[in-house]
Structure formats: C-alpha cells, structure tokens
C-alpha cells in the first residue's frame, strides 16, 4: 500500500479524443461558474453595469457565494488535472493535436479556447450543449461567437477590444486557416460580438487526431477541403 502522502502520478492522455473530452468537462464547469456569478449579481440588484471578471466575488451576497466558491474549486481541479495530464503526455513522448497547433502558431489562452469551443459542436450535439451553457441559453448551440470568448475568459474591457484584432482578417487563427469568422447579422461595428466562429476541416482533423482518409488539398483561406479538378 503506497504512503498516504504519496501523490498519484498523472496519467497521460491516451488520445486526442480523450484530451478533448476532458476539456469539454472543464469548459462546462467554467460555464456553470460564470452563470452562477451572473445570476448572483443580478439577484443582488447591483447598481450600474459592467463585465463579469474572474476573482471579483466579494460583491456577491454571502448566501450565493458558497455555491460560487464550490464551482470555483471544481473548475480549478479540472484544469489542474488537465495541466498535469498534458505534462505527463508530453513526458511520454506523445503529441496532442491542439497543443501542437497552439505551439506552431504561438496562440494565447483566448485563441486556444476558441479552438476548443469551435471543436465541440463539430464532435456532436451533446458537446454542442456546452455552448448553450456558455451562452446562458439552456439549449444546444451549434457555433461559438466572439462574445462567448469574452465571457468565458472573463476579459476586461481592453481584452474585449483586443478580440477584434485576434478574430479580424489579420488574426492568427484566420490567416492560418484554422477558424472561419462569419458575421451573422451584418458588417456594422456593433455586429462583431455576435460573429460566429467555425473550426475548419484542417484544424479539426489535427485537434481530434483523425484524417479525411484522402490526400486532399485544403483551401488556404478557409481550411476546408478543396475538390480536385475534373479532367
């Protein structure tokens, strides 16, 4: 029997799918936490408006703060487990598709999260329900939006404004053919937060560790497979 204080060694991820499933659980936990924070502040009838940022829980009423504290602990545990297993996977000589992309394009946490949120609905409807929780809709949502990234990362005003650069035409994910950005309403300045984000086929295949089965050339602008010319 191992000593009581001996730490359990982190288990490497068996596959990219195993990694994405763990990320889905952590994202879901974060969505529940943010939802609880928003509800608590709305119920408290706070004066004024503002962005919900992480670590600003002292203004939450004490009766709701206990639930928020529990959700914080759950989310931190899940992300800590993911970090430990990522390191164990790296030590085992395995390469995870998502991490490989992030290293190759030097992506930050917001851009990494964008890849995760856009991958989930492409996997299946159950994972798309996580986006519904992120958006506080309570039902399945098939595409992430720019605004979701601001909410999920608890970005301050400067961070929200930087999203326009990161997901504009010159953003790393767009230029690299990893994510397609579609304005759902129009091209006015105020329409940008509602812009939908979609994972490209090229990025999806690398992240989940599968291939299309054929050596198909991808479109450099959108990352989708290009049909071979006839003749």
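Sequence proposed for the structure above (231 residues):
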């Amino acid at each position: 029997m191992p000593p009581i204080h001996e730490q359990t060694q982190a288990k490497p991820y068996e596959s990219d799918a195993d990694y994405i499933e763990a990320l889905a659980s952590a994202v879901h936990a974060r969505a529940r936490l943010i939802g609880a924070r928003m509800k608590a502040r709305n119920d408290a009838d706070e004066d004024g408006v503002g962005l919900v940022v992480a670590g600003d829980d002292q203004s939450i009423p004490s009766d709701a703060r206990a639930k928020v504290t529990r959700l914080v602990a759950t989310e931190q545990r899940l992300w800590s487990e993911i970090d430990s297993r990522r390191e164990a996977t790296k030590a085992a000589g395995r390469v995870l598709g998502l991490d490989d992309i992030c290293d190759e394009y030097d992506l930050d946490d917001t851009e990494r999260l964008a890849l995760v949120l856009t991958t989930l609905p492409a996997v299946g409807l159950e994972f798309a329900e996580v986006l519904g929780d992120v958006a506080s809709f309570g039902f399945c949502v098939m595409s992430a939006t720019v605004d979701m990234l601001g909410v999920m990362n608890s970005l301050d005003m400067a961070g929200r404004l930087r999203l326009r650069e990161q997901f504009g035409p010159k953003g790393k994910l767009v230029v690299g053919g990893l994510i397609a950005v579609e304005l759902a309403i129009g091209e006015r300045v105020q329409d940008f937060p509602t812009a939908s984000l979609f994972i490209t086929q090229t990025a999806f295949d690398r992240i989940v560790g599968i291939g299309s089965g054929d050596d198909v050339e991808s479109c450099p602008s959108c990352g989708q497979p290009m049909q071979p010319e006839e003749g």
